[in-house]
């Protein structure tokens, strides 16, 4: 055997022979399976090693020439990667929308890779294609609640589509606005439609002076990307002020009508059902009226909040969502599915045809290939994860998860309001809320003398940033932060942002987090400065 | 305990307690780990159950109310889903770019879900962010081969980017052309750039009569989607004929100059390094000259062929790729990583800034959040899979895989050419080739009397479709088919398309596949018709 043959034989082994039961990789797998929390707490080191320091472990730009043993590499992954990952499973990681997942997803992830289907076309995803269509149908029904006949007609229809799976909410939002744009500039006369002839020809044909998308200041940043990529430009995105955290329908209507009066056209109104920053829900019914009045597409970005529909108690917070032309929903948020399970749904099963495309070797006319109406091409079978979750948890299970999250957030809000040194800045509607640390002495001054806010808030802003950073770096818990305009003040303020989606987060976790923040605050120079300022102001 | 509390407790168990060692899910996992080929051959039923029939298993649009036991659901997944999946691991599944994967990806998939990081921002992906940047750097260096200084400067630079990971080649191609478009319509004077002011204002400012993207007829269908979504319209995509399967630089230059002469502008030239249909590589160096001459962005879609760069023997087939402004590469194709690992790379580390965006709660100015320049938002840590592969296989391992694929395709081409009843329609450059079944009697007539082609080819087309369909449905092996124009005939013909990427595919597999196709052909009515026609023609 030559050297090359020997190497090739060695290589084939990687494709055909699993690692032994005692191998490092097998050990890691067992640990993950047996006790994920323990695996993470042992291997994710809560160090305050700086990012710049971690980067030193990843500073090679040359691909190593020689192969490495799997076990040796597994050790390195533990040391370099896992050790400095973020423990998103932890009940005290409540800063973002990534939370603990049900155990069965670990096994399913392995099955998914073992099957390695490509859902762009049936030839590489036979049963996965109908499965994905069913899952889209189930979520479509959760949102739009059509009858059996409707779903019998459209669930597996080759020429229609109830929506698309995609990598996440951003692609879902872009897909929805892509459809909205193409629908608006439909073919007529010699104009073959925007898909064929482009935006410039469309604007000429329809004679619009300008094109706009209306949303609130809480609109997700992906909307800015969407109007950029779609050729409208970010100037076309009207982000209306929302000091009460929801879009005022009257304001939206007024602004929309002003655009129409100037010869412009509103392409879409984007309502938010669970803003990323505060979890507020726009008045969907009223905004549906506004969209009807303006003659525009209504898109509801329910990436985060859409799962609330599982709850019979809280689902009607989203009343009116069934009037949306399109809806974004992320299963990797409140549906507890691993990262990468976004969905866009269309009320009209014909909507996807606005962006239908074909190729010679796949996506042929009349095929049921899912890739024919999706923005993405090759995709994996993430729909299986949601399919399994919908069955294993059931609607009742999801309902319980949603209800307990919302009620936990309400309880945390009560804790914060009862605490002398914290200020609740936005009340939770779903399981998101924002707050900040404000020493009691400062709070009483702020209440009595709102004109002092302009002076005190910048210092409080600094304090918030410093506490959040220290807390993150100490690694015991994590809240995020954002900058918001709220009703009480003229200028935006920095606030902590928490998302109470992890079912394992307990009241003890929450009180401990407040205690830690208070402790950290006392060590910070901004705290002393504030007290000094206040003592002067009191004199 | 109330009913609700009991249900909640039950639910928490799904988040905290793994399935037992004897559970169905644990059994599935063990089978996957111990012998993937056996798992697939036992569970993937090679049935010719029709798609419509399979759809009956996925026709529920109501989410089940009640939770289901994990093991019960796992059984159902095996019966309904796995049984009717496609065995992409099989050495006889050679129709698409999905192939066997190294074993370690099964374990890593589990680790990935266990960690469930979100790479849009560092706060949810601490070490994964530098890891992804390193992987992008390694692949960037494989393509562009800059020196150490370059990578030291840019690998972890907050204000620069060497590229982006994304779900696949389609998003990569769209991202590349998005950057190209925004670069072309840069801010000047009162015009704030296309990202801000949109395409219409950009066209006015720059005074272009039309905007074009040039590629060949083999350009991936995602390019059509890209010009649609970017607002240019599909009419802007010039797909030039390429009867020899590669884009003729002279033709590209001529067409490009014609556009310029009419007051138009060529936004980008897209060269293909490994066409999806035949694996041919456009003359990159010459096309780089053309792009320079036309003053346009050069994008190379190397989603499939880019991995050839690992090979010292065949890598220079892609000579000139280092002159591309952007390159698409899919790790889930010839890098043997699970589905969902696309990349776009930019020669200029400043290019990504054409689409840079910020938000209040993440992607802040100066942060190293990867989401600031990516089309997608939340993303999982697929980069880990490629990182591990690059280390465990090493460049040498990848080189061996690439070399043996290319050499296997050459050997298969020889087999086909030696076979009396098959016709090689495009020779393999990489590991893709196309061919068709043409009975010897027909072949000799076709050779002597090319005017008969117009009569015979439609029947041969039908035969190709029928053989491919029967073969797919019988489930023992799979080749795909496409429709191509080739040099020999005036009109496009249907051909089988094979991709010999699976290292486990042997010569026996290939001879058996030809034998199966020949056997199937004999049972088909088109075959008899052809023979009848030929016997008449011979008389």
Automatic annotation (TrEMBL), chains A, B:
<dbReference type="GO" id="GO:0019752">
    <property type="term" value="P:carboxylic acid metabolic process"/>
</dbReference>
<dbReference type="GO" id="GO:0005737">
    <property type="term" value="C:cytoplasm"/>
</dbReference>
<protein>
    <submittedName>
        <fullName>Glutamate decarboxylase</fullName>
    </submittedName>
</protein>
<dbReference type="GO" id="GO:0030170">
    <property type="term" value="F:pyridoxal phosphate binding"/>
</dbReference>
<dbReference type="Pfam" id="PF00282">
    <property type="entry name" value="Pyridoxal_deC"/>
</dbReference>
<dbReference type="InterPro" id="IPR015421">
    <property type="entry name" value="PyrdxlP-dep_Trfase_major"/>
</dbReference>
<feature type="modified residue" description="N6-(pyridoxal phosphate)lysine">
    <location>
        <position position="333"/>
    </location>
</feature>
<keyword id="KW-0663">Pyridoxal phosphate</keyword>
<dbReference type="GO" id="GO:0016831">
    <property type="term" value="F:carboxy-lyase activity"/>
</dbReference>
<keyword id="KW-0210">Decarboxylase</keyword>
<keyword id="KW-0456">Lyase</keyword>
<comment type="similarity">
    <text>Belongs to the group II decarboxylase family.</text>
</comment>
<dbReference type="InterPro" id="IPR015424">
    <property type="entry name" value="PyrdxlP-dep_Trfase"/>
</dbReference>
<dbReference type="InterPro" id="IPR015422">
    <property type="entry name" value="PyrdxlP-dep_Trfase_small"/>
</dbReference>
<dbReference type="InterPro" id="IPR022517">
    <property type="entry name" value="Asp_decarboxylase_pyridox"/>
</dbReference>
<dbReference type="InterPro" id="IPR002129">
    <property type="entry name" value="PyrdxlP-dep_de-COase"/>
</dbReference>
